[in-house]
Amino acid sequence: MKKPVILIFASRKDDLTFCSIRYSDAIMSSGGIPLIVPMKTDKDSLIQLFDFADGFLFAGGVDVDPSIYGEEKLNDTVEVDEIRDSLEMTACKYVFDSGKPVLGICRGIQSVNVGLGGSLWQDIPAQIEGALRHQQTNPGTEPTHEVTVKPGTRLYEIIGKEKIMTNTFHHQAVKTPGKGLIVSANASDGVIEALEASDGRFIMLVQWHPEFTATTDKASKAIFGAFIKECEKNL
Fold first, then answer.
1. Active site positions, annotated
2. Model's pTM, two decimal places?
3. In angstroms, what CA-CA distances link 127 with 74, 97, 172?
4. How far is CA 108 from the centre of its chain?
5. Which domain holds residue 166?
6. How many structural domains comprise the chain?
7. Any idea what the CATH number is for the domain that residue 97 is in?
8. At 113, is the secondary structure helix, strand, or coil?
9. Span 157-168, mean pLDDT?
10. Burial of 136 per CB tally in 10 Å (0-12, 13-18, 19+)
11. What pLDDT is stored for residue 25 in this prediction?
12. How far apart are alpha carbons 39 and 156 in whole angstroms?
């Protein structure tokens, strides 16, 4: 039986395009085939890959350049990668026009949000008074703070409950949701923890890292399972 092919927009370091094996393991264990997009893929090749793919995963990594959403760099905590930004911002138009499922994780929620015209908090500790600690020191397999999922959202439908514990490794967060996106979860300090499409298509964006616990946590497993199930509709 055919399996859906998932394009992963991953990280870059020097001459490497790479991502954690946890992403590919989570996709494969849910029934998909992961394929990492090389960092300097040209537009024509991207379009051919988009036609071939059944879904898209925007993975974690460094920060999105604030200039893309009209701001100057706030402080030295903001680490950007212009090559990755260029690839993902180019990809965004075609990804959304395709109507195929999208899953965004950590940087992924931020990148997709900016690609749809939204903005970010550049540094939570510097900009949000009284914020929780969103950069945990515990291993990624250990959840450290609670997230409240909004009833009536697709995320709530997938997870099946209002309160979940999540891991957290970010110093930036969504400030203003992009066009066509609605908030589906928040932390207790008000920080946006998840976005989804307002029109019912499958765009699922989370600030935490469900790939770390995709085989051990019901909510994490459900997110990947729902994503792959939607991708199967394109086979």
1. 106, 209, 211
2. 0.97
3. 10, 34, 10
4. 3
5. 5-234
6. 1
7. 3.40.50.880
8. helix
9. 97
10. middle
11. 98
12. 34
